[in-house]
C-alpha cells in the first residue's frame, strides 16, 4: 500500500519494541513473587476485560522484563481461532505491577518515535493490518500463532502526530456513536418484546380501556 502524500512509512521495529510474555509452564529459578497477569481472555477488541484477573509466580529478577506500562499495546499472539490473532487494546495501567503471559505480545513505542499507540492499534485492526497478520499466521496442533519477527516487519504508516491524534479522535467518536446506537437498538427491542408480551395478551391495559377483548 502506497503511503498518502506527506506520510512516512517505517517498519514496526524502527518505532517500537515487541515483547513476549511469561510462559505459565516454564520452571522458575531463584526467588519469585506472585503478580497479577493478563491472559488472552483479558485482551478483547479495543478494551481490557478485568472481570477475572489471575496471579502467577514471577522471578524477581524478571519483573521489569514482564511488567506492563501505561500506553503498552497488547496483541494476542496465539489463539485457536485465526480471526482472533492480533486482537488488541491499549493498557492504561488499570492494575499496578501487572504482567502478561506468553500468548500476548506487548508492543511498546519508542520514546524517540512520533507514534501514538492508539494510531498503531488502528492500523493493525484495519483491513490492511488484518491481512498482514493473517498472512503471517502459522498453525500447529489447532493453535494459530504470530511470529514476533514478522510482526516487527509490519510497515507502519507515519503521518505527523497532530494528524494521528485527529484520526484517532474521529474514529473513537464513531466507535462511541455506534456503541450508543447499538445500546439504543437493544433497549428498543426490549420495549417491543415487553409490549408484545403485555399489551397483546391483555396483561397490561392502556388507560381508559378496561373492557373484555373479543375474538
TrEMBL record:
Gene Ontology molecular-function annotations: DNA binding; endonuclease activity; hydrolase activity
GO biological process terms on file: DNA restriction-modification system
Name of protein: Restriction endonuclease subunit S
Keyword Nuclease: yes
Keywords: DNA-binding, Endonuclease, Hydrolase, Nuclease, Restriction system
SUPFAM superfamilies: DNA methylase specificity domain (SSF116734)
EC identifiers of the protein: 3.1.21.-
Keyword Transport: no
InterPro entries tied to this protein: Restrct_endonuc_typeI_TRD, Restrct_endonuc_typeI_TRD_sf, Type-I_RS_S_subunit
Family to which the UniProt record says this protein belongs: Belongs to the type-I restriction system S methylase family.
Source taxon at top rank: Bacteria
Domain Type I restriction modification DNA specificity: 4-180
Native organism: Aurantimonas marianensis
Amino acid at each position: 500500500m502506497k503511503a498518502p502524500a506527506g506520510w512516512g512509512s517505517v517498519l514496526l521495529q524502527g518505532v517500537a519494541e515487541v515483547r513476549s510474555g511469561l510462559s505459565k509452564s516454564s520452571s522458575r529459578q531463584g526467588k519469585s513473587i506472585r503478580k497479577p497477569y493478563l491472559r488472552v481472555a483479558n485482551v478483547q477488541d479495543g478494551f481490557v476485560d478485568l472481570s477475572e484477573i489471575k496471579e502467577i509466580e514471577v522471578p524477581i529478577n524478571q519483573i521489569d522484563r514482564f511488567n506492563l506500562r501505561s500506553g503498552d499495546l497488547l496483541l494476542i499472539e496465539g489463539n485457536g481461532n485465526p480471526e482472533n490473532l492480533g486482537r488488541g487494546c491499549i493498557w492504561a495501567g488499570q492494575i499496578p505491577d501487572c504482567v502478561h503471559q506468553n500468548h500476548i505480545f506487548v508492543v511498546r513505542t519508542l520514546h524517540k518515535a512520533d507514534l501514538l499507540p492508539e494510531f498503531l492499534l488502528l492500523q493493525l485492526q484495519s483491513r490492511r493490518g488484518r491481512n498482514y497478520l493473517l498472512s503471517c499466521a502459522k498453525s500447529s496442533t489447532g493453535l494459530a500463532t504470530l511470529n514476533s519477527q514478522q510482526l516487527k516487519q509490519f510497515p507502519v504508516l507515519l503521518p505527523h502526530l497532530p494528524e494521528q491524534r485527529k484520526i484517532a479522535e474521529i474514529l473513537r467518536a464513531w466507535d462511541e456513536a455506534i456503541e450508543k446506537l447499538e445500546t439504543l437498538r437493544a433497549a428498543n427491542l426490549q420495549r417491543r418484546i415487553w409490549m408484545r408480551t403485555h399489551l397483546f395478551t391483555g396483561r397490561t391495559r392502556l388507560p381508559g380501556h378496561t373492557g373484555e377483548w373479543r375474538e
